[in-house]
Amino acid sequence: MTNEKSSDDQTGVMSIWKKHSERERRIDILMEIRAEYAGRAMMRTIVAVLIVSGSLMGLLSGFLLLSNNPDDLLSSSLFKSDDNVDISGHTLHNETGKGVSGVAITLSDPETGALIDKTTSDANGFYRFEDILSKRSEMTAVKDGFKTIHRIFTPSQTGEVPLTMHEGDGVEEEVIEEPNSILSAAVTVSTIVAVITILTAFVGLYAAHEARRGKRYRRTQYLAGISLCSRGFIIFGPILILVGMILMMIIKEQFADHAVDGRTKSAGDDS
Fold this sequence. Notes:
Blueprint: H1 2-67, H2 70-74, E1 84-93, E2 104-108, E3 115-120, E4 126-133, E5 137-142, E6 148-153, E7 163-165, E8 171-175, H3 179-213, H4 217-227, H5 236-250, H6 256-270
Parallel strand pairs: 1-7, 6-8
Antiparallel strand pairs: 1-4, 2-3, 2-5, 5-6
Helix pairs in contact: 1-3, 1-5, 3-4, 4-5
């Protein structure tokens, strides 16, 4: 009777010990799984931080491009022409580079044809108009034996306005773009670039969210690639995003779609 009781006690102790060991083993397995997932989450978080940092730089760069008011820039004293200016220059032979004297030069309104002023180049080919209204004007240079020059331009205090005379007959038409029109085009291009920079930066922020989520690898890479166009601080933002993309390639097994594709391929090979 005593032996049977002792045997039952030992069995109970062994059962308790086995249950305790099994519980500890499950705890260890769970801790290993948690550690593995924590490590994976940490790597994807690093990728997300890199992409977010580069995208935020792009976002800041875009807003900096838009922060200056184009109207203020165009109307500033730096680009504003004086109401009246002096125009001077030389009439030069196209082959010798020497001044051509006796060239009759006139200024007129290109829309109405009204004469504004006229002069003739001196012995050195020099000519000058004084106190001319800074607006769109037409300059005509005429001399026997040379082609006539018709030039449309806007007078400004930018130095000499040379006229290159070519021997022969006919007319040479020249149109010089207004400085403000060129600047306006540059401002328009800059605005478009700023908008694209901001939009691609937002794409980068979404790519960072997808990287942290770890669901679709290829889509996340495509989105991150688009965000490279955000050009944060020229190269620093794209470098951070590119490093994030490279790191994403290294840990692509942590993305659900890549893992599923890998398991499906393995199952197909086994069958």
